[in-house]
Amino acid sequence: MSLDVQEIVSAVASRLNVDNPTAENAVGTILSILDHEAAGTKADALFDELPGARDLAQRYDVMNQPAGGGLMGMLGSALGDRAGALINGMERLKGLGLTVAQVEAAGQQLVEQAKTAAGPDTVNEVINDVPGLAGRLGL
Questions:
Q1: How many domains does the chain have?
Q2: DSSP H or E stretch at residue 33
C-alpha cells in the first residue's frame, strides 16, 4: 500500500500538535538521515513506497543544510556523510524546538506508516542499518 509522504507529515503534525511546516521539517530531516546513513541498503525500497519521500529528504538534506553552528553541527559536517548525517539531523530536530518526546513520536509515527507502505521487514532492516537512530527515536 503506497502512502504519500504528505499523509505522514499530516499524521506527525497531528500527533505532535505542531504546524505542518514543523512536521514536514521533522519528517524530511529523519528521511534525510535514513537516505544518507542507510545508503546501499533497503532504503531505496522504502523510498519507492513513499511517494515524495526522496524529494522531502533532499529538501531537508542534513548534509547540505547544516543543522547549526554549534559544536555538534561542526563535528557532524567534519565526520562526513554517514557519521555526520545522524549528528546533523538530531541537531536540526532539536533546533526545531521539539522536545525529546516529540522527536521520538515523530520517528515512531513515520516508522509506523512506513511499515504499512513498505512492509515491516523492509523498514526494520533500514532502521537496523542506521546505528543510533532507533535509540534516538525511541524505537
A1: 1
A2: helix 20-37
